[in-house]
Amino acid sequence: MVDRLKRLYESWEANPNIGFVLMKGSGKAFCSGGDVVTLYHLLTEGNIEECKVFFDTLYKFVYLQGTYLKSHLAILDGVTMASGAGISLTGMFRLATDKTVFSHPEVQIGFHPDAGASFYLSHLPGYLGEYLSLMGDKLNGVEMFACHLATHYSLNARLALIEERLGRLTTDDPSVIETSFSQYGDLVYPDRRSIIHKIEVIDKCFSHDAVEEIIHALEIEAADSYDEWCAMTPKKLREASPLSLKVTLRSIREGRFQTLDQCLTREYRISLHGVSGEVSKDFCEGVRAWLVDKDFAPKWDPPSLEEVTKEMVDFYVPPLISEPELELPTASRTLCMTDV
């Protein structure tokens, strides 16, 4: 699917008769990121080369979309998770609805938030990106709009009107496109129980440099405030892959100071190391436990945060030695964007 999208986007970008591109899902979901089970079966069959091709294709498409020369609009109606979020959130306009469910649950299956996630999550307000990447919690459309993951919000019932309005446009002016989105927008605020209202506590606890310190800060907060959320959060963190938690925290922290192409290059290294099983087979074990056998009892390796060494985490991020790096057309696309 991503390979076809990439070829289509390249042809559309070069076509002067096309003013902008609209992306939407074909059913109840926008895109659920259901690629992990396929990757699992490829790995169990010993076909790691096809996994490498998958990540190479996916990340190159995300970069193309993030540097697209035409206006890009994504209607995130329904489930928008993992790579399903990555193929849309680097674009110019992102419309969330009352049906939207966003999440990056990768650490729960022994992986890391990828497909550009370390770029857009790390640029969220405060340390919300660290929270979402380590916890894998869901956001609804209102919350996505509140934290700027979505640029617009509208009720699902208005989507037909929005598409009709966009279909009548005779200009590719981004300001006119944005006005068309905004015309059917709704003024909304997160529910009082929303995680958005806990941003001060999130900043206080998730700003620490180590996962163990984050958990300790949450436990102290829970003891001082008797807050149920603070009590439950450390428990959920301890259920995730310890190695994935530490690799993910480092990835998000580095993403704060990197461009999209630098984030994708790092994510590619982490992904290849993750599926190779050289340090740990947590990815296959997590997918097996949660999505294949569904016994919901993964046996992580290492089994605890204390047993994850700095050397293990360091293995995932440095430049690849035995494999070629992700090659992105940064020079040519930067030049094209400068010329526009």
TrEMBL record:
Residues of the Enoyl-CoA hydratase/isomerase domain: 1-316
Keyword Signal set for record: no
The protein's annotated pathway: Amino-acid degradation; L-valine degradation
Gene Ontology MF annotations: 3-hydroxyisobutyryl-CoA hydrolase activity
EC primary class: hydrolase
Pfam families: ECH_2 (PF16113)
Catalytic activity: 3-hydroxy-2-methylpropanoyl-CoA + H2O = 3-hydroxy-2-methylpropanoate + CoA + H(+)
Purpose: Hydrolyzes 3-hydroxyisobutyryl-CoA (HIBYL-CoA), a saline catabolite. Has high activity toward isobutyryl-CoA. Could be an isobutyryl-CoA dehydrogenase that functions in valine catabolism.
Family stated for the protein in its record: Belongs to the enoyl-CoA hydratase/isomerase family.
Protein name: 3-hydroxyisobutyryl-CoA hydrolase
Protein source organism: Eucalyptus globulus
